[in-house]
Amino acid sequence: MGTKNLALVVGSYDDENAASEDYQALRSGQDSGGYEIVGAVVLTRGKDGKVQVKEHGDKSVGHGAAWGAGAGAVLGLFAPPLLAATAVGAGVGAILGKIKKSHEEKQFGVDVDEYLAPGTSAVVAVVDDKWADRVEKALERAEKRISKAIDSDDYERLQKAIDESADDVIEQINS
């Protein structure tokens, strides 16, 4: 994956069911060969501000990455503090710190309060950037959409750290 250019695609929803429907449409689009998704999740944020991973699937996609483990990387790239709140392990924390610093230096990032405000949902996907436009269009029920280039090295380092403590991270994401 080191040679790939990756993009983070986010769709924001006032209705959790619409987010779930678009997520299922993303999976169907991938299954039919329309594009390749590296990882994707549906997030919901309660009125109290608590974020939950609602859907991340349970089968392998892309290059054999488990959607569950991929959920951790997607969360870390979308908003490092969200993963830090659930992740265990010094390796994951160290990588998240570097990614957060890198995002700040590059003015990269998606405003969590804008795209996952309290009481809303979001579909967040990591894709090869050649598929970003198709994936963004597939989020047809979203009120807002955004696509941002991400550093594939960040993804690889984060995925490696999560893989090293995958059972703990996946358990936290699923709880």
Automatic annotation (TrEMBL):
Keywords, sorted A to Z: Membrane, Transmembrane, Transmembrane helix
Transmembrane segments annotated in the record for this chain:
77-97
Tell me which InterPro entries the record gives.
Answer: DUF1269_membrane
A Pfam family annotated for this UniProt entry: DUF1269
Q: What is this protein called?
A: DUF1269 domain-containing protein
Q: Does the keyword Transmembrane apply?
A: yes
